[in-house]
What we know:
This protein has about 260 residues and is α/β, with parallel strands linked by helices. The chain has helices at about 15-35, 60-70, 120-125, 130-150, 165-175, 185-190, 195-210, 225-245, 255, and strands at about 50-55, 80, 110, 155-160, 215-220. α1 packs parallel to α8 (about 225-245) and α2 (about 60-70) packs across α8.
Amino acid sequence: MGHLDHVDLSLKLSREESERMLSVHGMRLAQLRLALGGLAGSGQLGPPLCVLFEGWDASGKGGAIKRLIAPIDARHVRVKQFAAPSADEKRHHYLHRFVPALPGWGGMAVLDRTWYGRVLVERVEGFATEEQWRRSYSEIDEFERMLADDGMIIVKLFLHISLAEQLERFERRREDPLKVWKLTDEDWRNRDKRPAYEAALEEMFERTGTDRAPWRIVPGESKRYARVHVIQEVIAAIEEGCAQQGFPLPDPLQAAAD
């Protein structure tokens, strides 16, 4: 049994319950973000917060990111999306292009796709040699260790959906003129390589999930449930990370406590 086998994909929420929970948790997240930015609470800059999103094609990363940052002032968060590296980016070490997006003290960044592409798509599609992607496990571990030792709170999220649910979403995208652009020939080809990607994911979870930066697998079959789960995980990571570093956080607002 692998990590993905233990994920309960039947979890769901009603529209009313998900909206209520997003409102409550959104208030808490906005409060924590202000505290980290030195705009509430102690007034001191808090640790950097970096939220990493990975997941299957059509797993709902975009919608989850949109809901996550909705309660936050746009000036207080940076969202960066990463696609395949450009010809110029390939001239550098693969971690190089991610560094400018990393937050400093008091900052928050959300990364849509990350350096884990090295051990996922680059591994499965043969864009990296076996020696390169095998070496990258220790490189990534040391990279995240360096960031965590400097105080960064790293939240690693993987949105998981079944093969059947993915097919339904692909078909809905194909019929929607406003979403068909999201669907590519590569997305269809990747479905045939699901076993290879699952094997790569299991090794990634096993070798790069650490106490300082654990993997948090999000059940994504229900988009409403996934969006609430994501914001809950980010709040928990902030509170746990700040407690470990002794950074004071304000108590939840009364409206959120109710």
